Amino acid sequence: MHIVVCLKQVPDSAQIRVHPVTNTIMRQGVPTIINPYDLFALEEALRLRDRLGGEVTVLTMGPLMAEDSLRKALTFGADRAVLLTDRSFAGSDTLATSYALSMALTKIGQEFGGPPIVFTGKQTIDGDTAQVGPGIAKRLGLNQLTYVARICDLDPQAGTISVERRAEGGVQVLETRMPVLITMLEGTNEMRRGSLDDAYRAARSQIVKWSAADAGITELAKCGLKGSPTIVKKVFAPQARAEKVQHIASSDLSTDALAANVMAAIFQKQPALEGDLLRFAAGQ
Amino acid sequence: MSDAPKTDTPKTAAGRAGTKRELPEHFKAYRHVWVVIECEHGIVHPVSLELLGEGRKLADKRGVELAGVVLAGDPLTAAQVSAAAFEHGADLAYVITDPILAHYRNESYTRAMTDLVNSYKPEILLLGATNLGRDLAGSVATTLLTGLTADCTELAIDDEGSLAATRPTFGGSLLCTIMTLNYRPQMATVRPRVMSLPERQPGRWGRIVEHPLNLTEADIITKVLRFVADRESDKAQLAYADIVVAGGLGLRSAENFQLVRSLAEVLGAEYGGSRPLVQKGWIGADRQIGQTGKTIRPKLYIAAGISGAIQHRVGVEGADTIVAINTDPKAPIFEFAHLGVVADAIELLPALTRAFRAHLSVNRLAG
Fold it and tell me: Which residues of A touch B285 (CB under 8 A)?
């Protein structure tokens, strides 16, 4: 079975700094990583391949340096990596991104065999939209399974799959027909350590690089900024709250005395809270 | 929406997008503000009511009507959900009732929503950023080829009458305002508890517009085999808790997180933590507070050893009183906390637990 995992190279957001004067992002020296949510998708794909046979292809869209993430995915055990890279993709929002990726997935199907399963993470850590997965599913007519916690059953012959899906207030057990798009929930598996063989293979592997034209994209108006219905109107730093913080002095006080002052300050701010707490304590 | 930071220099992105073109002729018929009223297993999700409150303001600013969209499996549910929509500000409800819609499925709900939009043409379409709302919104926006902005923290109408949707960006370091100028509807999702719940107006009523589903069960490939409801005790009730105590990396070790739980226990509070704690595995993902975790609006929020990055700030700003404990007097959390203590949380948390326990037991005896 051929499985494709879409992943994204993202800046390690915990380390992003904002320039205090210009409010621009200081990207220099910020390390990039595979979007952590995508690793759950990759691991799930590798497990299915190990169990059922076949191949795992990883696909990403991004600048040339996104090759780093693809090579990393190969060291974990992916069989093939495709980088979709073209200046015409610059400024893509999620609608334009899902268009380009869906065209590349079609091309992957033609070149390497149609995938019954396309995986993505539930969302990225830089955009946090969770929109590209459903966008790909809709464009390719794949049955959509988001927030999947577990694959319960998969029958390649019958072409059926059933999964547990995290829904509001419970878990839905869904059964559908492949091809499907699955977005994996976090914490559902643990990424393997790649083998030494995989590391050697990854170092030697040729990464497939496709331009828009290579991926069969002829309608450039659907790509990049032109193909994006949303527009970033303004980017700005948040303002401090108008009301200044009331500091509770901590010097020259024992910790217990400080705690008493903090408690008193809380009750002063929220007079009703003391009564609420006493009622709660009385009910204990 | 902007899944990817669009450029390295936000100023360029903003400048480039600064020109407004005339809305294409065929979109000019799109009017009114819609809110999808999310209902699973007979319960209206509070986020939908919160959105009605926000949708009301947008509709009034635009001088248009506010509609609730009700997708229900049976007439009784449809009537109850419509009533909830009217009592929280909707002027009318678009209702599709069909047994196929009893359980959420992407295919049937996407079909129902796109059909309604194409028939009645709203200018703004709002959904809750729940698992259901996000699953549905992406499919609907892609089908309609329109813009969708996820997880907005502020919605407004600009001078030219367009929806200005503000959300954190770049992993939560900055805010950005996103617009869909030349496509309709303008779609946005908002997380639970980001907007306040409007007051219920008992007896308020509106018009109902019924619409057929035009689908049969045989058309739908995906089947719901069963639904396993969460046990009440398993659910972290963070979003709707009155008091929340949370910890961050300032706790320095997973063991020290117990100090947060102890204080929470004395206060009858829920507990949670910042995103790094989830990434380190100190707490479960359902306890994460912030943009990508839970948004909370408690009466009292105690943040211990949390620096207060934007992505955390937007998740807690709705709290009535924020108490920040941090060793770094320059930590961003002091820019939006109400009470600040420059101290080591590892020492102060147990002292606070002792102080509250003593105060509550003494006064209980006295009472």
Answer: 186-187
The average pLDDT across B245-273 equals 96
- Report helix, strand or coil for B49: helix
In a domain, B224, yes or no: no
Say whether both B196 and B252 belong to one domain.
Answer: no
User: Domain containing B64: what range?
Assistant: 21-219
> Is some CB atom of chain A closer than 8 A to the CB atom of B23?
no
Number of structural domains chain B divides into: 2
Which residues 6+ apart lie within 8 Å of A241 measured at CB? B335, B336
Give the domain-ending residue among B219, B253, B269: B219
In chain A, domain spans = 2-222, 239-284
Give the pairing type, strands B186-190 and B124-128.
parallel
Radius of gyration of chain A measured on its C-alpha atoms: 24
Can you tell me the distance from the alpha carbon of A280 to that of A259, in angstroms, rounded to the nearest whole number? 21
Domain stops at, among B166, B197, B219: B219
Tell me if B7 is assigned to some domain: no
Residue B309: both structure tokens together? 């990055």
B240 and B201, same domain (yes or no): no
* 191-220 in chain B: CB under 8 A from chain A: none
Residues B124 and B261 in one domain: no
- Tokens standing for residue B325: 């404990």
Tokens of B201: 């107006």
pLDDT for position B5? 43
3-state SS, residue B264: helix
- Coil, strand or helix at A71: helix
CA-to-CA dists, residue A268 to A58, A112, A284, B46, B115, angstroms: 57, 68, 24, 31, 54
With beta carbons less than 8 A apart as the criterion, state whether B155 and B165 touch: yes
Residues of B in contact with A24 (CB under 8 A): 8-11
Burial zone of A167 (CB within 10 Å; 0-12 exposed, 13-18 middle, 19+ buried): buried
pLDDT at residue B11, rounded to an integer: 40
**CATH-assigned architecture of domain A2-222:** 3-Layer(aba) Sandwich (3.40)
- Is B175 in the same domain as B35? yes
Q: Spell out which residues of chain B touch residue A276, defining contact as CB-CB under 8 Å.
A: 242, 299
pLDDT digits (tens, 9 = 90+) for B233-256: 556 688 889 999 999 999 999 999
Nearest to A262 by CA among B200, B304, B99, B85: B304
B180 and B245 together in one domain: no
Per residue in A149-208, pLDDT tens? Answer: 999 999 999 999 999 999 988 899 999 999 999 999 988 898 999 899 999 999 999 999
CA distance B215 to B98: 9
B89 and B150 housed in the same domain: yes
Question: Do B113 and B247 have their domain in common?
Answer: no
Task: Give every CB contact of residue A267 below 8 A, 6+ residues apart in sequence.
Answer: A273, A274
B68 and B222 Cβ atoms separated by less than 8 Å: no
User: Cβ contact (<8 Å) for A230 and B2?
Assistant: yes
Q: Which of A93, A4, A283, A282 is nearest to B183 (CA)?
A: A93
Beta bridge partners of A209: A83
Distance of residue A216 Cα from the nearest chain B Cα, in angstroms: 20
* Per-residue model confidence (pLDDT) at position A241: 73
Residue with the two structure tokens 């995992």: A5
pLDDT (tens digit per residue) in B32-91: 999 999 997 778 999 999 999 999 999 999 999 999 999 999 999 999 999 999 999 999
